[in-house]
Amino acid sequence: MRLLEDNLGKKSMVEPATLTDFIRYIESNFPVDRYLLIFWDHGGGSVTGYGYDEHFKGDHMTLDGIERALFNAGTQLDFIGFDACLMATLETDFVVEPYADYLIASEELEPGIGWYYTGWPNELSQNSSVETIELGKKLIDDYVLEVKRQTPNDWNIENLAITNLNYLMSYKIIDIYGNSYWTPAITNYRKEDLMIQDIRPRIFNNKFTNKKAEPKDLFLSYKEETVLVKEEKDKLWYPSFADFQDTHPALKNEAQFLFNIDEINYFLVKQQDLDTVKGWTYVTTGRFRTELKYWRSFAGTVGWQLNRWYQNHNFCSRCGHQMKSSENERMLYCEGCGFQTYPVISPCVIVAVHEGDRLLLTKYAGRSYKNFALIAGFVEIGESLEETVQREVMEEVGLKVKNIQFYKSQPWPFTDTILAGFFAELDGDDKIIIDEDELSMGVWMDRDKVPPDESRISLTGEMMEAFRTKRMP
């Protein structure tokens, strides 16, 4: 331990700006591979938040203030701990989730002695690569043993837990009156009715506004099939303009507003050499399919879709003049001939053909994706979605279907499509005749042999899982 600064003046310990400055100071002056952040003081949970500064009228830092401080600091943390009472709530989980992998906190009152800061820090100093989950367990074990030793009659001692924030999501519940709604939940698996666009309780807002970028706003930079993220992070950690203020101060001036998720604005930038800045790199957009935090993946894929649209419409397809962006809506227009164009979205059907307890599964021909899939195809001019279902099934596997039932839809930014899922019953002969230009395989598979959906991001996977688990016929 040493004195960091001679005199910083009188600062409130529950002011978000103080926390932001502290985190930035530590990261700038003590660069390391991993950071832990611990809040030590009183805790009031979701109602009053953290802390009590008697020098500043007993103020506290609300959960909103904590999130604002963490967002502005921009540091990814191994864990955030609250050595304070009552802070292990779902509201706290959702606030800190974007900035840390784990939360350590108690949902009850803590004894006055607090945590034990000897055992687990010694273990970390001896093995700096110790897994965060193991370090958290050591912290909790030390806490329990020390409180038992010093305050053996305290009945709340074991109410301290470590939560893996990578498995934070939502699920639908139905109350006793039959009303259904979404509520936050912690689980160790992805619910079968969630796909890449299901980012609740976060809110995706695609309303276009002609706003200018600010330092705190995030931006997306693409180079072919790669996206700019922070180096050596397991998560898709997108940059803010503040991160590039010193090296690219004019970057935000030409940025194009895309959308926002909650209060976070996302912009698109055209510059593609930003990986020359230390700490940032371009990674494959394939990461969008494996990111545990759906809202990060969805932001990246929708931004990628819009990036393709802007790049593909630099010039007017009618007269060749430079296209310009409208200030009133998400539209490009030509000053030469007046031509206008909007983001291209192509409708596509996904079809689960079934017969009793059998499901028709296929594999694509000549594609990198080698797992089982369902019948899929684009809607042609002049046909309905149901007619597309019948045509695609006949073209790809030579079968007729009946009792076509709509399941649900999904935006699929990877290919600029809107997917419409249908279940359809086999009508007649079950002999499969595949179109070898489209498919390498087509098989009937018993329900209990259908492979479980591991990725949990696509409508195809969800429909296969719905059939496998008997949620659909």
Please outline what is shown here:
With 473 residues, the protein is α+β, with helices and mostly antiparallel strands. It has helices at 16-29, 45-48, 63-73, 90-96, 119-126, 132-150, 294-312, 385-397, 459-468, and strands at 36-40, 50-53, 59-61, 77-83, 100-105, 161-164, 168-174, 180-186, 204-205, 218-223, 226-230, 256-261, 264-269, 280-284, 323-325, 332-334, 340-341, 346-355, 358-364, 375-378, 401-412, 417-426, 439-446.
List the helices and strands and how they pair.
Layout: H1 16-29, E1 36-40, H2 45-48, E2 50-53, E3 59-61, H3 63-73, E4 77-83, H4 90-96, E5 100-105, H5 119-126, H6 132-150, E6 161-164, E7 168-174, E8 180-186, E9 204-205, E10 218-223, E11 226-230, E12 256-261, E13 264-269, E14 280-284, H7 294-312, E15 323-325, E16 332-334, E17 340-341, E18 346-355, E19 358-364, E20 375-378, H8 385-397, E21 401-412, E22 417-426, E23 439-446, H9 459-468
Parallel strand pairs: 1-4, 4-5, 10-13, 18-22
Antiparallel strand pairs: 2-3, 5-6, 7-8, 9-12, 10-11, 11-14, 12-13, 15-16, 16-17, 18-19, 18-20, 19-23, 21-22
Helix pairs in contact: 1-3, 3-4, 5-6
